[in-house]
Amino acid sequence: IEDLQFQLDKFELKQNQLLRKEKELKDKILKGTAELENFTAKVTDRQKDLDTKLKKIKEMFEAQKDLAKIIREQRIVVQKWMIAYKRADFHVKNAIKEKTPKTAVDDLENLRQQQKERLKKETAVLNKAEQKLTYLQDEA
Length: 140
Description:
Elements: H1 2-97, H2 102-139
Helix pairs in contact: 1-2
């Protein structure tokens, strides 16, 4: 009977050890699962941030392309106003040389002044667009 009692005690001790070990493993599994879920949440958040940044970068790239096209077109506009101003300047100087009446010279000078102002305005638009493009390129 003592031998059976000893065997039973030994068995119960072994069973308690196994139960403790099982509890420890369950705790480790729960802890590992929680850490994995936390890590997954961090990775998901990071992925969302990267997706948002990628979308913003794509938008900025498209804006740069659009702005570059606007700048090319604006340069043509500035060149045309430059030609118009130089042509008006030539006509004013030519009218003065040919001793054209004062009223005609005044009209030509007025036209030249208007074209000069428009040239300044268009050049300012071009400069502003170029500054925006530079800003977008620096941000990207």
